[in-house]
Design goal:
The complex is a heterodimer of chains A (about 100) and B (about 450). Chain A is of the alpha/beta class and about 100 residues long. Helix content of chain A is about 25%, strand content about 20%. In chain A, strands 4-3-5 form a three-stranded parallel beta sheet. Chain B is built from 18 helices and eleven strands. Classes of the chains: A alpha/beta (about 100), B alpha+beta (about 450).
């Protein structure tokens, strides 16, 4: 019997931060969108804004362009800081290719 | 998406609601978004990650057994495909012995971290590179070029974070300058972008880079990379400039673009999304001057295309890489052409009339571009395909025959250079290669 022992080639993954805590309920909350600015977002996110506003009393859903858009900027610290400063309770990320 | 969150240092899962791309085509029905609204609400309120807390997870070694070496080798290959680590061609299992052998080409400790590979965020070390190079059939003397290429790839200026996942089928092009090209058997001549048992280094290095993109970076077709076609990705493109046939007065690419010394081992990394052979030579009895000029026009004509992905490199990257055989370069140099003059000519004669841009819907792409330089370029008629002639890359490479040149169409936000460091035992590695592969 021959045994071959070899390395896993996929490299280690580092988990450096936890996900944001979820909100208890959506009523009265402020929600933002962060989009990578692909064409799908222009159809989907306005519809999502519409259904959220219809389903939850007092909810405020910011416009699609409230924060910087595009692959090059949505993962940046600057965008994260803008999102935090805006006072939103949660964000929905529109990510398409 | 799991790649994207892992790349940001979060656990590789996320509250996701996914939809097929067909649903978003113009005129299509997007009511499924509303039908699944509850999933969005749950993602915002109830979802919890099921994965562990902070820390780096290092995978344990893998074992396969077989009644013979042949069977064990086959099982290892099957397992690597099943785990989505392969490319469909046979792989060397990266055993400790083989990886240690590859690491003889390292100048730094195996654990030295180069960076995290986007978008998945796999930790990339010298050893990670050696594992990929072992799998791709590489040798220790190739490792310095691979490590430099990976370092350039992971530089945010390369644009790799976006191109890894994007639909436009970008592939990295690694141009090697300095004596290391010939030393490690990189091809600079006939068939330099294809397979060559006499000069096999480019295929192994490029394949290793691709395996890293997939296995560490998560660029798995249809999952981590949405490239429609993915051409040239088995081995990417890795070749040496044919410096032995550079005309007098023509500087190597690494010196021109990155200011490296002529004798410096170096690499330059850009991205391309197309590869086109151009019949450059005239058909009849043109004078040398006519042959050169007609060839230049023909090459510019191939470049005069609305390559909208190329806008990513409009300002700082490259519209593409033009490869000229040494024999052509020397004839042209004898007629007074320099690399700079060639770039100026190509820039001027590859411009696209605004009317042609308009009928192809290109102004809309220019208008929404993040770069002010791109947006303002709409006013230029004819429209230049890149902001500056200096952005064109012109290299001397290819077989010693005057008929063809080659154009690697750019999709490259940046062009990133790195020097290549070799270990003190490099001469010994080259002697081992002489022993194993025969004389160069």
């Amino acid at each position: 019997m021959v045994t071959l022992e070899f390395h896993d080639p996929s490299g280690a993954i580092e988990v450096k931060q936890p996900f944001a805590p979820r909100v208890a309920a959506l009523e009265g909350k402020r929600i933002g969108f962060v989009s990578n600015d692909q064409w799908q977002a222009y159809r989907m996110l306005p519809l999502l804004k519409q259904v959220l506003e219809a389903d939850f009393a007092g909810i405020e859903v910011l416009p699609l362009d409230a924060f910087p858009q595009g692959n090059a900027v949505i993962g940046s610290e600057e965008t994260a800081a803008q999102v935090k400063q805006s006072g939103v309770d949660a964000v929905i990320i529109g990510n398409a290719a | 998406m799991t790649n994207a969150v892992a790349g940001l240092g979060l656990a590789p899962d996320a509250a996701m609601v996914t939809f097929p791309i067909e649903m978003f085509l113009p005129g299509s029905d997007i009511s499924p978004v509303e039908a699944r609204k509850r999933e969005f609400y749950d993602g915002l309120t109830r979802w919890r990650s099921t994965l562990g807390g902070a820390g780096a997870a290092e995978a344990p070694p893998i074992k396969v057994r077989g009644a013979s070496m042949d069977e064990a080798f086959a099982r290892a290959n099957n397992l690597m495909l099943a785990n989505r680590w392969g490319d469909g061609l046979p792989l060397w299992p990266p055993t400790r012995e083989r990886v240690d052998w590859i690491l003889r080409g390292a100048t730094q400790p195996r654990s030295r971290r180069i960076g995290i590979f986007p978008p998945r965020g796999g930790v990339t070390t010298i050893e990670t590179c050696a594992i990929a190079l072992a799998m791709s059939g590489g040798r220790p003397e190739y490792l310095p070029v691979l490590v430099a290429a990976v370092d350039a790839f992971l530089d945010p200026a390369s644009g790799s974070a976006q191109l890894q996942a994007a639909s436009g089928s970008a592939f990295p092009v690694v141009i090697v300058n300095g004596p290391i090209g010939a030393q490690i058997r990189l091809n600079a001549g006939f068939g330099c972008l294809g397979p060559d048992p006499q000069r096999p280094a480019g295929a192994s290095i490029g394949r290793a880079l691709r395996l890293l993109q997939q296995n560490v970076g998560g660029a798995l077709p249809g999952i981590g990379t949405m490239a429609n076609y993915g051409g040239v990705r088995y081995t990417n493109v890795v070749f040496a400039e044919d410096e032995a046939n550079l005309p007098p007065g023509w500087a190597p690419h690494g010196t021109e673009r990155h200011a490296f010394a002529r004798s410096q081992h170096s690499i330059s990394l850009a991205f391309a999304n197309g590869a086109t052979n151009i019949r450059r030579r005239g058909a009849k009895k043109e004078t040398p001057e006519e042959d050169a000029l007609q060839g230049m026009y023909r090459m510019a004509d191939f470049m005069r295309v609305p390559n909208m992905p190329g806008l990513a490199g409009y300002e700082h990257g490259t519209p593409g890489i033009l490869m000229l055989p040494g024999v052509v370069a020397n004839t042209m140099a004898g007629l007074g052409w320099t690399k700079a003059a060639i770039r100026e000519f190509l820039w001027e004669h590859s411009r696209i009339p605004t009317e042609q841009l308009r009928r192809a819907g290109c102004p809309a792409w220019l208008e929404i571009d993040a770069s002010k330089v791109v947006r303002e370029s709409i006013a230029l008629d004819p429209w230049p395909i890149t902001a500056s002639p200096d952005n064109f890359i012109v290299v001397v490479a290819g077989g010693g025959h005057p008929t063809n040149s080659y154009w690697l169409q750019g999709y490259s936000p940046g062009v990133v250079g790195r020097t290549v460091e070799v270990p003190s035992s490099f001469d010994d590695l080259l002697m081992d290669a002489e022993r194993d592969l025969g004389s160069r």
